[in-house]
Amino acid sequence: MIVLNHTVVPVADRHRGARLLAGLLGLEVGAPAGPFAPVRVNDDLTLDFDDRSGARPGHYAFLVDDGVFDAALAFAERSGLSWGSAPRLIDHQINHLGGGRGVYILDPDGIAYEFFTAVP
Q: What start-end ranges are recorded for coiled-coil regions in this protein (predicted)?
């Protein structure tokens, strides 16, 4: 068995980065773990936000249900985040690749969070 347990997300401000992802997913930021601000995504995966080496653009993709998708997009709109139908394309459109819905939400550090739903 192989399970991705955690990964480090390099950001300019670990607290801001963790709060942003937690807000998109409707989660809480965990207690600090050493130099990291962790967001536990599910029972198997935690994203550890780290600001010790500065921000680097990245791409993190999440398969979500319709409720999480709608909530993430609403959070992005309320927060004034850039979003669109393809990576780095700010067209405020949802794609329908693979038969579901997909969107890319950009954070201030250039990280693209992709949210997509399964084929209905």
A: none
